[in-house]
Amino acid sequence: MGRVMNNRYIIVNPIFIFILSMVFSPVYAGEIPKVLLHVTSSSQTIHQNALNNVDALLKKYGKGNIIVEIVANSGGVGIANVKNRINGKVSSLLGEGIRLSVCSTTLTKMKNSGTLIPLVEGTNHVPNGTIRVVELQQQGYLYIRP
Predict the structure, then answer these.
(1) CATH number, domain containing residue 91
(2) Which of 5, 11, 20, 141 has the most other CB atoms within 10 Å of its CB?
(3) Rounded CA gap, 79 and 121, in Å?
(4) Alpha carbons 122 and 114: distance in angstroms, whole number
(5) Could you tell me if residue 3 is inside a domain?
(6) pLDDT for residue 11
């Protein structure tokens, strides 16, 4: 497999490319994988899917072998609501070291419109959810949108 370029052959070997990708990938370079789950929907199904994704990641990598942060903004802040039917699971994951960051901009807008939601203990407040997503991606977090 090759291609002529300036009368020279450049050999492109898929196995070589795979090996290079393993060497330069953070997962294969011995770094702990970092995963960001971005929740923007008020759907209970989406919230449950996000938590199922976290469970799958913890099962695959094990506690302490992966860093996971859920960032919730817009309708997604409901995932952190104490009154949410999944709040026990959220609290359990926070106890496992999973970070749940909730957008303060969204909370302020909700408060100004007369809606207050009690948040699960251990929830992290960030100034802006979208900016937090960008910051985490700049730090090498893999992005998942459940």
Answers:
(1) 3.40.1260.10
(2) 141
(3) 12
(4) 24
(5) no
(6) 52
Q: Are strands 34-39 and 67-72 parallel, antiparallel or unpaired?
A: parallel
Number of domains comprising the chain: 1
Q: Is position 2 within any domain? A: no
Sorted by sequence, the CB contacts under 8 Å of residue 136 that are 6+ apart come out as 34, 36, 69, 71
The reported pLDDT for the residue numbered 22 is 44
pLDDT confidence of 75, banded at 50, 70, 90? Answer: very high
What is the arithmetic mean of pLDDT over 10-33?
Answer: 55
* Rg from Cα positions in the chain: 20
Confidence of residue 36 (pLDDT cuts 50, 70, 90): very high
Specify the range with the lowest mean pLDDT, choosing from 21-30, 48-57, 126-135: 21-30
Secondary structure (3-state) at 47 = helix
Res 19 pLDDT > 80: no
DSSP code at position 83: T
Domain that residue 51 falls in:
29-144
DSSP string, 128-145: -HHHHHHHHHHTTPEEE-
Angle, helices 44-61/87-95, rounded to nearest 10 degrees: 30
